[in-house]
Specification:
With about 350 residues, this protein is an alpha+beta fold. It folds into 3 domains: about 10-120, no CATH class; about 130-265, Jelly Rolls, CATH 2.60.120.1440; about 275-350, Phage tail protein beta-alpha-beta fold. The protein has 9 helices and 21 strands. The chain has helices at about 10-25, 30-45, 45-55, 90-120, 230-235, 265-270, 285-295, 305-310, 320-330, and strands at about 125, 130-135, 140-145, 150-155, 160-165, 170-175, 175-180, 190, 195-200, 205-210, 215-220, 225, 245, 250-255, 260, 265, 275-280, 300, 315-320, 335-340, 345-350. The strands form 4 sheets. Strands 1, 3, 4, 7, 10, 11, 14, 15 and 16 form a 9-stranded mixed sheet that branches. Strands 2-5-6-8-9-12-13 form a 7-stranded mixed sheet. A hairpin with a 5-residue loop joins strand 3 and strand 4. It starts with 9 loop residues before the first helix and ends with a strand. Residues about 1-5, about 60-70, about 75-90, about 115-130 and about 235-240 have low confidence and may be disordered.
């Protein structure tokens, strides 16, 4: 895919936008391709409009409202892709362009629609017009940040980001997220929380806030420096004695009392929750219920500790479906499920 110019034909522009749209929905862009995608968007306002046409065709942008803002200074590190001001003559020109390429857009959008169906509803969302993102109970999201990094959020999560020429900072105030970070040695990527800070250059790792004072950092690829909140900003080199370095398949739990010992884990399995599924391999029912309850509005309660101590069989479950989990347990001869309300299922001894 090449950068466009003002002389591109409508058909060529629409085809490029449709190709990017298909790749975004399929969520298979490599770090290099993400940078190419960002460069393509920034090359021309027409590129942004062409991509938005595809999104609108599928209904994703019908409720969006954009207001005119003063154009920011355009530089290589800007997080904003501005729209040009439009006078009456330009509006007429744009209407004519839109009519000419409507037929091409429909064809391209139809092709992209088949990929959406195959993607199973995981829309890779470009987050250029908002530096905040949040999820509700039972909701998973994925976002492409303005530096090309990808973040996957679990339910009940809130985060915001601020990127400048020296540093990329993400503040995770609630929940859990996995970050696939584009390498940029001149701008470290720092995730800060109330319990832990994590610093990376180019890697993939997860941060989960378990409660008000405890966080878990798990590294899938690369290396991540971990410290108490605020330490990484104060120690730009990341070599302070208070900073720990995690490598692939390592995890640390940080609480108000300090960090626990670094432990070896299967990071792919530890971060499975980001896909919306989890594979249980002998964990207790009590542990499984914890995984469901902190991510869903529907809560599963245990009336007898003996039920919580039951070992789960080898099984893969959807983390957004605690009801099916409770029904599965109720198939045992020693467990029954009782619906106490729309938001509560209680597991009782038979």
């Amino acid at each position: 895919m090449t950068h466009g110019s003002q002389t591109q034909s409508d058909a060529e522009l629409s085809e490029q936008a449709a190709q990017w749209f298909v790749r975004l929905v399929a969520s298979d862009l490599s770090p290099q391709e993400r940078r190419e995608y960002l460069a393509w968007l920034k090359a021309s306002e027409r590129h942004v409009e062409a991509l938005l046409d595809i999104y609108r065709y599928h209904g994703y942008g019908r409720r969006a409202k954009l207001r005119q803002c003063p154009p920011p200074d355009r530089d290589s590190h800007s997080n904003i892709i501005p729209f040009a001001s439009r006078g009456s003559s330009e509006r007429l020109h744009q209407r004519e362009m839109h009519r000419r390429r409507r037929r091409t857009i429909k064809v391209a959008a139809a092709i992209a629609g088949m990929v959406i169906a195959a993607a199973g509803g995981w829309l890779a969302k470009t987050s250029y017009f908002d530096s905040r993102i949040a999820t509700g109970a039972g909701e998973w999201k994925q976002a492409l940040l303005t530096d090309g990094s990808v973040v996957r959020l679990g339910p009940n999560t809130r985060l915001r980001w601020s990127f400048d020429e020296n540093r990329r900072t993400v503040t995770l105030s609630r929940g859990e997220a996995v970050f696939d970070v584009v390498r940029d040695p001149g701008r470290p990527f720092i995730v800060t929380t109330h319990a832990v800070d994590a610093r990376a250059l180019g890697t993939e790792f997860g941060v989960s806030l378990m409660n008000g004072s405890t966080a878990v950092v798990t590294v899938l690829h690369g290396r991540v420096a971990v410290s108490k909140p605020g330490s990484l900003h104060a120690t730009a080199s990341g070599t302070s004695g208070e900073v720990m370095e995690l490598m692939a398949d390592q995890q640390v739990v940080m609480s108000a009392a300090g960090p626990q010992a670094i432990r070896q884990v299967n990071a792919s399995r530890e971060l499975q929750w980001a896909s919306g599924y989890y594979e249980f391999r002998g964990e207790t029912v009590g542990r499984a219920i914890e995984e469901f309850n902190r991510r869903n509005r529907l809560q599963v309660l245990v009336a007898d500790p003996a039920i919580g101590a039951i070992r789960m069989p080898f099984t893969t479950v959807r983390l957004d479906d605690p009801e099916s989990f409770a029904v599965m347990l109720a198939e045992r001869s020693d467990v029954q499920a009782a619906y106490e309300s729309a938001d509560v299922i209680r597991l009782l001894p038979e």
